[in-house]
Design goal:
By secondary structure, the chain is an alpha+beta fold. Helices cover 17% and strands 37% of the residues. It contains 4 helices and 14 strands.
Amino acid sequence: MNINSTKNKYWYVVYTRSRAEKKVCDEMTRKGIECFLPLQKRLRQWKDRKKWVEMPLMPGYCFVHISSHEYDKVLQTDHVVCYVTFEGKAAVIPEWQIESLKQMLKQYDFEVEVTHENFIPGKMVEIIEGPLAGVQGELLAIRGKNKFVLRLEQINTIFTVEVPASHLSFLPEEMVKN
């Protein structure tokens, strides 16, 4: 592999057919394409039993880390519908946002702490402590003392994150990552 080829790779989001995210990720891996599928464990109940299963965090989407010459190879993968686009071009996801998603998936690893900070929806915030440190987003809503709804703008996705309010900090507009 050419060393320069990794420098020209970017993260993109592909839209998949319904319930085909894991198949797409497996097929990408077989093709040698780096793929990231954020999964979370959920307790599912059937008539006769309950079982913990890994479900996509964002149903219908997978992230791919590709160079320009792999662009069409992704589209030729079974169950891939299209790239998520912005202004007619495939939307590029910054590396730091992929890392933030990976950190977000580790959110169960810290204790909850009660605080009485007064957060106002509509402001940009950053998580400043714990495994989610560095994640930035718009604060959309507050659901309890330790549950916040954040929007990660570049991927137009909304997350409900359970973190202590003491782990959040407002961001001045000039500090917001682009």
